[in-house]
Structure formats: C-alpha cells, structure tokens
Design goal:
The structure is a single chain. This protein is an alpha/beta fold. The protein has helices at 2-13, 31-40, 73-76, and strands spanning 18-21, 27-29, 45-48, 66-67, 88-91. A five-stranded mixed sheet has the order 2-1-5-3-4. Strand 1 and strand 2 form a beta hairpin.
C-alpha cells in the first residue's frame, strides 16, 4: 500500500494542475490536494487522458485509474456513464489536456 501511495505521489508530482468535475467543471486543484483527496475519498474517480505509449514510459500506469486517451474520449464517453454522479479528476502528463 505504501509503495502504491509513493508511486502515485511521485507520478502526480509531475503534474501542475488537474481538472476536477464538481459543481464548477473547470475547477483546478494542486497535485498535493488531489493526492490528499484520493487518499481520503474512495469514491473519487481519476481519469487519465494520456496516450497508450505514455503509459509505458517511466511514469507508467497508476493502479485504479481509468485510462481513456483524450483523442478517443468522445467515442468512449459511454465508459464513464456509470460514474455520472461521481466526482471525476482528469489527469495527463503535463496538465494541458486535463
């Protein structure tokens, strides 16, 4: 568990901003805020919009995170239907796509 949290912390520290879908869909939070919320809120969904080749880099995939590349998100949005009423944090490599 600690390894998972440390890996997540390392991965997330690379990003500067993340979009969080709440009442205001354009809300941004810091990496540390996201990590804190993800550790406490088991209902928070994290959507990673990186490309498949980015998931094989040294950053890799994060356990428990849904990956749908931004380029195909419109076609695969139905995969998120079951999370419609939940809060979704969107992440990417640099923060530009999220």
């Amino acid at each position: 568990m600690k390894f998972y949290l440390l890996t997540t912390l390392l991965f997330m520290s690379i990003f500067s901003f993340f979009g969080i879908a709440q009442d205001d869909p354009k809300t941004s939070i810091s990496v540390s805020e996201l990590i804190e919320r993800y550790g406490k809120d088991t209902t928070l969904i994290i959507l990673d919009v990186r490309m498949p080749q980015e998931l094989t880099s040294e950053l890799g995939q994060i356990k428990g995170v849904i990956n749908i590349p931004l380029q195909v998100l419109a076609q695969e949005v139905t995969k998120l239907e079951k999370f419609r009423k939940k809060e979704i944090a969107i992440i990417c490599r640099s923060g530009n796509r999220s």
